[in-house]
Structure formats: structure tokens, C-alpha cells
What does this fold into?
Amino acid sequence: MNVKEIIKDIFYVGIDDKKTRFFEATWPIPNGISYNAYLIKDEKNALIEGGVKVDYSREFFRKLEKIIDLSELEYIVINHMEPDHTGTLPQLYRLAKNAKIVVSQKGKELLADFYKITDSDRVIVARDGDEIKLGKRTLRLISSPFLHWPETMMTYEETDKVLFSGDVFGSFGALNGRLFDVNWVLDDYLFELKRYYTNIVGMFTGPTQNALKKLRMLDINFIAPSHGPIIKDYKNKVFSLYDKLSRYESDKKVTIIYGTMYGYTEELVSVLALRLYEEDIPTSIINVTNVHPSYILADAWDSSVIVLAAPTYDGKYFLPAYNAMYVIYAKRLRNKKYAVMGSSGWSGKGYLRVIELAKELGWELIEPVVEYRGAVDEEEIKLVDELVDNIVSILKKG
Ligand SMILES: Cc1cc2nc3c(=O)[nH]c(=O)nc-3n(C[C@H](O)[C@H](O)[C@H](O)COP(=O)(O)O)c2cc1C
Ligand SMILES: [Fe+2]
Ligand SMILES: [Fe+2]
It folds into this structure.
């Protein structure tokens, strides 16, 4: 088993999960994910993160025990209590008899609720700015609530200037030995970083902005998150992506999220897409039946305009299209303009269901709503022309 010393006396003891198909039983991870943990050797040894997902305990303990005798572990610093990072904690707590757990106040409550760990001699509550001296090195704890749970904090190592950032700056994809950002193809990496942020942490844009403000004051050489590679060379890229996404800043592009059973909606989508192409507007066209909402959410996040196109179905909105919009709604995507179009057979008006969701998000409707019975004809094409004119004038303004 290979245990990598990433910086002198700082070891990577995380693992790759290539078996789980859906993270949080929700988000597809076709290329797996890593649960990262780090061991710092000093006069007092410290584990950063509570451990890994319980399914990988054998591998995790083999790694730890290759570096130290567990009786020599002094601190277990829990940045985040979620079980993907603490599943192995009860066992570690029993085996590492001299170790003390460092958590936030809220983390202490979760520790009792999840694992019944309440021994006050072995639980240290950390407050924002508290320091832990390991010997040569000092750790500083930085409170970062709601990134991604209410108890969350980050840990900053002062000598090598390593920020152990927890879920923040994490990405999907198993490492397969690619421990640092530069080992990844940049576009693939940034895509999985964005998908992770929008799917997992994106709800908490306010806390993200607060954390970024704090982190800008720190001198950081390495960001060591709890998922995905350690960030060394792409730090500025990652910071500016986080800043952009958490401010809901959009690119001048349109995302068309459409569903179709018999091709009628798709026909109108093609008319719209061609008109947008003629206006030189970059457009993503996503079929909800084939693409998981995880990817649709990530794509829509930084689009200026979202087009929702689907037929009426049982008096409601076409189900896979509603599902995609519901995920966008649940993740609270703000600051969007949107348009609605699609086909129907007799009663129509299924789109009213997604207009309700968009209204709650504060999105601004671009008229006209284009709904039509059966096949596309000249009348609808005229409406699409009108819609495109309105989209173009909005994009030119913004
Ligand atoms: C199971 C089913 C339920 C439908 N329910 C409605 C409905 O409640 N109201 C309506 O106007 N059309 C309804 N339709 C008709 C479709 O909206 C219509 O066929 C439309 O042209 C389909 O567009 P598409 O080719 O993009 O799938 C339904 C169609 C199906 C297959
Ligand atoms: Fe988490
Ligand atoms: Fe996590």
C-alpha cells in the first residue's frame, strides 16, 4: 500500500471510492470520488478530517498504521462531521486511546448524536481562530459554517501554509494517484469542481462569500480539500470560479432544458437553437431524458438565460423536465432570466408548474410563452423570432 508524503511530514491517508455510483445517493459519480484525510507528524501527531467513509475502514487503518502507532495519535481534527469523512471515527476513537477530538461547538453536538461520543476529557471544542501547537507546526482553526453543514470548519497549517478546506474546493472523481491539481487535465478538473460545488455546496452561496473573504487574508501555498486533488498551481483559477459561482455571475449563454416524447417540442427547440446560432449566442441544449439533473444544474448555474421546453403531461409538466427544474429550484439557483415553450395536445398549460418554481426563485420571465398544439407551424415560428429578439436584447444589455 502506497502512503504518499505530500509535503515533508504531511501524509495523504485518504482513499478512492470507485464503487459508489451516486454520491449522497443522488449525484452520479461515474469516475468515483475520493475521501481525503491527512496525517501530520510532529511532536504531537494530528489527523486532519475524522477519517473516511466506513466502507473503506480497512484500507484507511492500514495507511494510518504504516505511518504511526495509533497510540501516538494526539489529535483528530474534524473539519466536517458528515459520515463520508467520519464513518471510521468510532473505531479510530476506540483504537487511538490517547487521541483527542477537536471539533466546533456544533460539531460536538453532532458527535454525540451520530456516534454517542461525549467524553469531555477527549473532546476539545474549537472556536474561530483557536490554535493548536503540534511542536514545530501550529494549526489554526477557521470557522466556516454551512460549508457544507452547520458545524463545519477549516484548518490552516502555518509553516507550509496548507489550508485543509473540507468540502469547500472539493471535486468529484477518484484520484487514481493524481494527488495534485496539475496531474489532472485542467478542463476535466474544473468541470468536476463546478459540478461538485453546484450540486453539493452551491446552496450556500452567502457562507461561501464569507469564507472567501476570510481566506483572502491568508497566505496559502496548498489547499487540501476533503474530496479531489490538492490545489497547488490552479489556486487562482479555483478561487475565481468559486467567487463567480457564489455570486451567481453568468456568462452570455443560453441553456435550453428540454424534454420530448414524440419530437414536437424538439422541433421547436431546433428552430430556437438555429435562431440563437444566427445571433452568435452560445447555447447548451440538454435533453432531460438522457442527462442527469446533476449535469443540468451545473450547466444552468452560470447561464444568463434558461429556456424550459417540454410538453404538457397529464395536465402537468413533462415529468423528467419537472424533475430537472425541481433540482434547480431545490438548490436555489438565483439571478436568472428564463423563457418557456413546448407542445401540448388539448388542454396545455403544464408549464404553469415550472413558472411557479421560477417565480419563487425570483427569475424574470422573457415573453412570449410559446405553447402550441401538435406540430410547429408559422405562428409558433413567429413567436420564437420574437422570443429570440427579446433574449438578444437582454444579453446585449447585460
Ligand atoms: C401520457 C400523456 C399524457 C398527456 N397529457 C396531456 C395533457 O394533460 N394535456 C395536454 O394538453 N396534452 C397532453 N398530452 C399530449 C402531449 O402534450 C402532446 O402529444 C405533445 O404534442 C407531445 O409533445 P412532444 O412530442 O414534445 O412529446 C399527453 C401525452 C401523453 C403521452
Ligand atoms: Fe459534506
Ligand atoms: Fe464531503
Remarks:
- The chain has two domains: 4-246, 255-397.
- Residues 260-265, 311-315, 343-348, 374 surround flavin mononucleotide (ligand 1) (CB under 6 Å).
- The mean pLDDT is 97.
